[in-house]
């Protein structure tokens, strides 16, 4: 019989520790602390926390921060947060060595944000679109995993 980890409300949750890229480790292994789910942050706090995680080579965790903003934010801001979450997951897959999935999600995220006007919350959307498409092409050509911290985008510029 396979027993699943459950949270206090009975929903299935995997309590296994995870590495910096969100991959499950063996029970009892030291892992990276998970991002708490459902945290409501201001847009500026979301951008700061996600950038910190991206810079630390933890795009999987940054994706969770963007996902919280997407779920808690306004309908108008949803395309931005959803696109940024997809970019972070694309970087996660690329760093894990999944070139096909990484490139696909990087392009999907870029397509999701490229039409957004201005610089919402100080985010340099055109630079992120360029970064994502360039990285997607490199990942497809090179194949092996990329270094997530070295490849992390700058949300506010210098893409």
List the helices and strands and how they pair.
Blueprint: H1 43-55, H2 59-72, H3 78-96, H4 99-113, H5 125-142, H6 148-151
Helix pairs in contact: 1-2, 2-3, 3-4, 4-5
Please give a handful of descriptors for the protein shown.
159 residues; 52% helix; mainly alpha; globular; single chain
Structural account:
52% of the residues lie in helices and 0% in strands. The chain has helices spanning 43-55, 59-72, 78-96, 99-113, 125-142, 148-151. The termini are far apart. Helix 2 (59-72) runs antiparallel to helix 3 (78-96) and helix 3 (78-96) packs antiparallel against helix 4 (99-113). The longest helix has 19 residues, at 78-96. The radius of gyration is 16 Å and the shape is globular. The protein is mainly alpha-helical. The relative contact order is 0.14. The chain has six helices and no strands.
């Amino acid at each position: 019989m396979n027993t699943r980890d459950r949270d206090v409300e009975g929903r299935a949750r995997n309590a296994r520790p995870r590495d910096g890229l969100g991959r499950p480790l063996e029970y009892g292994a030291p892992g990276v602390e998970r991002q708490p789910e459902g945290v409501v942050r201001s847009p500026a706090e979301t951008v700061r926390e996600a950038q910190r995680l991206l810079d630390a080579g933890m795009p999987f965790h940054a994706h969770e921060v963007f996902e919280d903003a997407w779920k808690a934010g306004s309908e108008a801001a949803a395309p931005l947060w959803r696109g940024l979450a997809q970019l972070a997951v694309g970087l996660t897959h690329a760093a894990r060595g999944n070139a096909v999935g990484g490139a696909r999600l990087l392009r999907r995220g870029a397509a999701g944000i490229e039409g957004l006007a201005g610089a919402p919350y100080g985010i340099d959307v055109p630079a992120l679109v360029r970064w994502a498409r360039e990285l997607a092409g490199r990942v497809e050509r090179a194949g092996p995993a990329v270094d997530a911290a070295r490849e992390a985008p700058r949300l506010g510029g210098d893409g």
